[in-house]
Structures are given as structure tokens and as C-alpha cells.
Model the fold of this input.
Amino acid sequence: MFNKLVEKLNNSIYESQKRVQSFLTLVKFLASLAGLVILIYSFGFKESIQDALLLFRSLDIIFGIFVGVFVVRLFYSFKRWQFILRNKFETFLIALILLNLLTNYYYDSFFARQFFDLLGFDDFTGFYIFLETIYLLVIVGYELVVASLSLPSLNMKPPVLFVLSFIILILGGAGVLMLPAMTNLPGSMPFTDALFTSCSAACVTGLIVVDTATYFTLRGQLVILMLIQFGGLGIIAFALFFARFIRKNISLKEQVLMQDYFSSDSLYSAKQLLRQVVLITFAIEAITAYLIYHTWGSQVQFVSMGQKLYYSVFHAVSAFCNAGFSLFSNNLFENVVRQSYVMHLVIAFAVIMGGIGFTVIEDLFSPAKLRERMAKPWVDWRLSTKVALYVSAVLIVLGTIVIYTLEYGNTLQHMNQGERLVTSFFQSAITRTAGFNTIDTSMLKNGTVIFMIFLMFVGASSGSVGGGIKTSTFFLIMLSAWSNLRGKSRIELSGYELPKELLFKALSIFFFAASIIVFSIFLLSVFEPHIPVHKIAFEEVSAFATVGLSMGITESLSIPSKWIIIFSMFLGRVGILTFALSLSSSKYKKNYKYPSATMMVG
Done:
């Protein structure tokens, strides 16, 4: 009898199902949009007590709409138990909303207030609104993740989605940073400065036009931290990672998207790499934060344990994502942390891990790879892993020697031998990828500046959060030149022959990168005639390579110069070829071949 009643009910609502689902989609969109507006208002403006109470009621209304939509969707799903099992996370969120509404209005906050009093807090209303705001953020985030499942169905190439994701992230971050509650000064942050800061954080560069430590409030610093994290891994990677928990699988187009983003070898490895990259990233950041927490120098005085933890997490995320942002006005050259050499080493190794590439991290540290090498000791690293590790190691050692030698009697003169070695190693590792500094970069010798420009131009490894032309590009060009000198017509490495298409790609990256940098230096010299050209060159290469080091001219740049630096940071993060492919309509294919010819070269 029960089954017959259910069947009769389903038949009666069958014809209206599509209309109701369309209406529910519209209601969910409007509720999510209203919730997003409430979040922005509560986070970006300093509200009064009356505004807080109004916010409290508005949140309850939004939550009630989500409950109503869920119930109607359940009613129209026909297979209702399967609907609950298929949407377990959303069901859990709705159950929490129902419990919250019941305890608020039916029991007059009896359970919530008793629990709050048990914890010993004073401001129940403020804390409760904060919890509801966080919860609403989870709800809206969930809806955004669900919406991201339709990304692969869009008729867009992976480079276009990648470039658009960064544009949206940068513009959204700039808009949030312009809200009054983000800064300690009255009013809002100027648009150009907000865009510069957002672009620098999202592109994990580290160049700043205002002091991060004093200009921004805690909320503003948290926005910068989120931009660094999203910019380091990418919005698309985050969305598809959390989408897997909702849908439990990943489509072919999503695998192609991940393969293009992480520079993976195959579609299968891209699918496996997505989960491992996110988990390994959070694990390395957590370990780094723990080590930084326990290696702060005795001169650093924190107000509370929470502030110490916050500083540790901020610098850990900034280090692994190669961002170079710091909560000290003079970066790590600040007096209180200048001599925290153990912490410097922790940050340097975190920067190195973030700069060697996600595929390299997966090849080195994934449990599957480790188990395979334990069972089969003859299994070697991938060729790309060897190139990334060896080239990075050579550049770091070479940079340490050059900086130690040239700056021995200059910026390193007041240190002992051990401190000189640590500082030289730190600055060599940092210069290629991140913008931390433990020496006064404005006092560097010209030779050191030129060599650091070279290190920045080479940059990090492929598939990493760092910029530059990448170590693989530099190595391939050098290997091609060496093969040519030896009279070889083929490029060979470790028993493999590398296709000439890779060399053409490397030469294209080198040529376009050098051209953009030279043209930008020319424009900056026109707009900033009072600044020495070596400082301008240092600034531009640092921006394009998303390094973030500066010789102290960033804050004094004019508005046109800031826009040039913004564009350089953006191009350096998304990649020149990726940006070019996003603008091209299609790949040109030809089925014919011209006769061979020769010409004089050199």
C-alpha cells in the first residue's frame, strides 16, 4: 500500500517536475547571491549592533530558503532515499540548519547558549553571527563547487579557462580589498593599489605598494592569504578537487584540464595527481607552519598564542606558494627576525619544495611511488624530475657561492662565517622563486644584481607555483647549444632523444619572455626617468618571474608603471604560451611540406 501511494504521488507531480526544478535553481541562485552579498557586507564593513541584529535575521531567512529548496527537491526526486545518499554532504548541512533554527526559535537558543556559556565566552551575539557567517560561506562555497561541475561542458579550451580563472580571482580580490574594513586607514584602498596587491598575491609574486603589516587589518591580511593559496594551486584545481567529493569521479575533459594545468604526462596521472597535489600541499604547509612556530627568535614578541600561530601559518603558506609576502614591514630583514637563521632555513626549504613542481613532488613523495621503489629499487625518477632537481640544485649552489663571494664585504660583512653561508643559501634559493629577503637588497653590488636577475629569469621548475622561463626551458636550450657544439643533429639525454618540438617551444618561451621584459623596461624607463635603469630592470624581471624582490622602488612607481608591473606579473603567472593559446582561435595544421633550404646563421 505504501509503494502504491508513493507511485501515485510521483505520477501526480511528474508533469510539473521540470518547471519546479527550474524554479528551484533560480531560487538557489538568488539565495546564494543574497548570501554572498551578506558575507561581503559583514566582512568588509564595520557594522553597528543594529546592523549585526539585522544581519542575524537575514542569515536565518537565507538558511530557511535553503532548507525549503532542499525539501522540495527531495519531494520531487522520486527516489528519495537515493537522493539523500547522493547528496550526503548537503543533507548534513541542511540538518545543521534545522537544528540551528529549532534551537533559536523553538527553544530560544537554549542549547546554543548553554554550550556558549560552557566555553566561557562573553559576546554571544557576535560569536554566533561569526559562526553563522562561516557556515553561510560553506553553503555558498558548496553551491559554487556544484556550479563548477559544468566547467568542462563549456566550449572553452583549457588555457582560456586557466587565464579567466586568474582574471576573476584578481578582480574579485581587488574588489574585496577596497572594502573599508580591509585597511586601517579611513575610506577604501585606491583601485590601482588594490589591483596591484591582489595581482601580486594571486600571482604569488610578493611585490607590494603598501605595507602589508600595517596598512591592512586582520581581515585584509586574511584576504591576501586566501589569494595566495588560491593563486598558488589555482581556483580550477580547488574546485575540481572538492567536486570529486560530491560526484566521486572526474570526467575526461576535467582530466585534460588538469593535465594542461599541472604539466602532467598523461590523463591518468593527471587524475591521480589532483588529489595528491592538494593533500601534499596542505601537509607541507602544515609541517612548515609547525616548524616556523617553534623557530621564531626570542626577540619576536607575540601578543598571544593565536597571533603566533597566525604568523606561522601565514608565512608557511606564503613560503610554499612562493609568494614572498610577510607580516613584517621590512620582510625577513626586520630586526626581530633577521637573525632567526633556523626559521630562514625552514622557509627556504618550503620555497624550494613549492618551486620544484607538483609533478616532481608527486614523483618523489607520493605513497604509491615510494611503495613502488621499495618493491622495485631499479625504478628511477622520471626524466622531468631529474632535470628539475639537478638544475635547481646547481643554480642554488652556484647562487650561494656568487652571493657569498660578492657580498662578503658588503651586506654580509657584519656576520660570522656560518651566518654568511645561511644568508647566502637563503637568498640564492629565494631569488629564483619567492620574494623574501634577509639582506638589504637596495645595497647590493651591481654584479650581485645582475646575477640575481639571471636567477629570477630562469625561475622555478615546470608545473610549479613559481615563474620565470622555468629550469627545464633553460636546460633544454643549454643542452641544444652543447649538442650543436659537439656536432650532433639530435638532442639526447639519459638514453632518450628529445623531440625538436620541445626545443621550438623552449626557444619561443625564451624569446617572448626576453622581448616582453625588454619592452617593459623601456616603458618603465620612460615613465620613471629618475630611477636608475638597473633598479628598473631588477623590478621588471622580479615581476615577470613572479619573484617579488625589489630594490625599494615599488611604492614610488607612477600609476602607468604600476599597470605595467601588474601586466608583467599576470603574464608571468599564467605563462606566455598559455596566454597566447587562450587568444588563438585554433591550431593550424598542414598536410604538405616545402622543399628544404639553407641560409647563413651567425
User: Anything to note?
Assistant: The first strand starts at residue 491 and ends at 493. Residues 1-148 form one domain.
